[in-house]
Specification:
This protein has 427 residues and is of the alpha+beta class. It folds into two domains: 263 residues, Jelly Rolls; 135 residues, no CATH class. Helix content is 38%, strand content 17%. The chain contains 15 helices and 13 strands. It has a nine-stranded mixed sheet with strand order 1-2-11-8-13-6-5-3-4. A four-stranded antiparallel sheet has the order 7-12-9-10, with no helix packed on it. The longest helix has 20 residues. 37% of the residues are buried. Keywords: Iron, Metal-binding, Oxidoreductase. It catalyses: L-lysyl-[protein] + 2-oxoglutarate + O2 = 4-hydroxy-L-lysyl-[protein] + succinate + CO2.
Length: 427
Amino acid sequence: MDRAAFACSTAFFHDYSSASHVAVSLPQGHVDYIEKVESFSYSDFFRDYLIPNHPCVFSAKFTEGWGSRRNWVTQDGKPNFDYLLQHFGKAVVPVANCDVKEYNSNPKEQIPLKEYISYWKEYIKKNYQSPRGCLYLKDWHLCRAFPAEDVYTTPIYFTSDWLNEYWDARGVDDYRFVYMGPKGSWTPFHADVFRSYSWSANICGKKKWLLFPPRQEENLRDRHGHLPFDITTPALQDSRVYPRSAQSCPPIEIIQEAGEIVFIPSGWHHQVYNLEDTISINHNWVNGCNVAIMWSFLQDELAAVQREISEWRDTMEDWHLQCQVIMKSCTGIDYKEFYNFLKVIAENRISVLHHVLDEEASAKNTHRAAASALGMLHAVFDLKRAVQVLTSLNANEDFKKLNPKSLSPPPEALLHRLKAAIDTALL
């Protein structure tokens, strides 16, 4: 991060009220196309897309060196089934049925990749029809299962990735996925986990994205407050079911070609179609620019749980704890883990500022090395954002009921340490 980008971040995030920013409307739905690698810096991306929360598309030049683009694709641009079978055929993968709606999503099953590719070949041969429906391989943690494979290198623009930094430190999960699906496979209308950013790179094939900026989705709710499963459904025109749909702006449309990367900002709802047989690599990620949006999302989720079980509030002794349990089962995180999430990131940034990252440590901790590569000013920015969100968390009444003084270290002590680190770095 250069000084100009740091000054821009300081001006924008001058207080917590800027935390849950809403993207400024894009002129006539325009989405910028980033053509050249050599003329587009990390600071450019940070200033022009992360802070204003705007989408953009990176050209195929940004993925030219990836192993997956060399090996997973045939000369005519189709999925290289032979290579995939040879290297990953025995893997068990999650597959969704795009033709079935189950609890506002597509039901999934786990099957061997070799079985899925056999289905896919037959599906193509029969003109994209099958009694099994349209099956879509989604959310496969391929790189976690095959770490030695030469698949891709995360572009520098997406390396300030607190979400995967934290879950890698825990060693239990990550938010890096491979998607593979035939022409016609699709993902229903949604916003990403924790209201995270996402980036999606097409290894081969073509996608169509339909995007709505934050809060535009509110006009698409039905009379019960539910969002549509499919925003192309004719039912949206029925004002008796969707009373505000006429007020909705049309979606921003992106056609993503092979090799290109789409950046989806925080809190943007979207629906995605594979227009051809397509393979993509996808990350969800959070950083200092949108961590407060994640915190606001968690507060909304807890409030929704509290409303759902409010009738037991006075009769259940540990009601507030049960609310946290239910929220974690629905979202994957509760308030105590969110505190630990902030703590891990903050401690890593303090290490960067103390210049303790030698070559051996760099080899063992790629996230800390990436944070170091982004520079001291970025580490200070991350710490300042962690302090702002941690201060809000510490003042939260629901968090206070969880006995935060029992945490290690207690929030007040951690805040004092972070502020001291920032002051020392800025001397």
